[in-house]
Amino acid sequence: MKNQFLISDSEKSRILNLHESRKDHHGTALLNESKESYKKGDKLVLSFDRKVLGIELTSDMMVNEPGNYSWEMKVTNPYSPELKNKTGELGAYTLSEDDTIREYTIFVYDGDDELLNKDLKPSQVKRR
């Protein structure tokens, strides 16, 4: 009887390649919402509570942990004077294997004071 635990180098390579092709490489997939991804310099419009807030992303996407991404941003079109020229963060959260964005969170700060903290649906975040 042939020893079933002895396999050729080519068979080892074939098995390893199959395994590698199925691996999920966290942080390497582009986030998408309707096949869109965001990068530094993108201008976005956020709509919530009958208000519109314009922002510009000041950093590329940062991977905080699998399914949790963020961009630093600045307010470009505030709906109220206290938000003018403030900075903050736009967070994105995914819940699926294809990294489709399921929810955003916007944070706007004035120094250590939080001026805005709002959860948004993907339909509330649009490219300008």
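Above is the first protein from milestone M3; the second protein from the same milestone is given next.
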Amino acid sequence: MKIHLTILFIFFSLNSFGQQFLWTTNKNGLFPNSEMKIISKNEVLDKLKIYHDTYDWYYDGTGFTKEGFFKMFESSNTYKSTELTNWELFKKGISEINDLTISCIKFNEGNGSSIGILIVNKDNFDLLIFSNNSEEGMISTLYGFPKFEKFYKSIIEN
């Protein structure tokens, strides 16, 4: 749980150091006027294959409704140290997403890089994190990409 709260803090903290916004499927970018690379939804699976092959672990932070995620995050300790203006901008931006939008950020918490994939549609909020750092709840990528691919497709097809 700690790792997915951290990545979300990084996603909406525009002043965070060490993050690289890599790409999004949203033609408007992740944030208004952002300069993120725009890719097609068809290209996402190729990107995920690269991350799956590069990193040893992934974290399944899926299964939230937008409102459920907002409530969970706002009751966390991470929220207490959050810049509220950035949180409100992030929350507003996420709330306004109605079509499937997938975005990617690379970040470094000081012990190696990780890749965060944010998957948002009209009602749902999902998060996948690839990392070489094993924490509680991480899933090994050694189980192979075909199994992960089925999991990913089940998320985006709902």
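Note on the second protein: The chain has a mean pLDDT of 84.
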